[in-house]
Design goal:
With 149 residues, this protein is mainly α. It has helices at residues 2-7, 9-31, 36-53, 56-87, 93-148. The chain has one domain (2-148).
């Protein structure tokens, strides 16, 4: 559960804020001014725009790359020792360099895939928040008026 919240922190904040704005706006528009739902829609749009402007995944990618760079040699050395023990003989320097290059390439590919997946999910949530907020901003009072009849 903690992994989910850490991995999706900006989305959790934006959707949580938007849900709160929607609930408060719906309550106020039902009990007081119909235009309160329109204002809640404007707040939801702001949350969506801020979500899209966040550089969360760039920050995560930088932290992961720094962490990998600081520990790569130790991990690659362990992998080479494992390969050598399974082969029963030491690897040549050229083969060791090849193994390290392949490990680095695969690791970079895997990290990029995970980061890109997160970026795509963030963009999807940004789109949904902006569309829903724009709809409420434009038609919230009309919607409340229809429901009050």
């Amino acid at each position: 559960m903690l992994r989910f919240f850490v991995r999706h922190t900006p989305v959790v904040y934006a959707v949580g804020f938007s849900t709160m704005a929607l609930c408060v706006g719906a309550f106020l528009s039902w009990t007081r001014s119909d235009a309160s739902l329109n204002r809640a829609g404007a707040l939801i749009i702001i949350a969506g725009v801020l979500l899209g402007a966040s550089r969360f995944y760039e920050w995560v990618q930088q932290k992961v790359q720094t962490w990998i760079s600081s520990r790569f040699d130790a991990v690659a050395s362990d992998a080479i020792r494992t390969i050598e023990s399974e082969a029963g003989r030491p690897l040549s320097t050229a083969k060791k360099d090849e193994v390290m290059r392949v490990i680095r390439k695969d690791l970079d590919t895997e990290v990029s895939g995970v980061i890109d997946g997160g970026r795509k999910r963030l963009k999807l949530w940004e789109l949904w928040l902006i569309v829903a907020g724009t709809f409420l901003n434009g038609f919230g009072d009309v919607l409340v008026g229809i429901l009050k009849r």
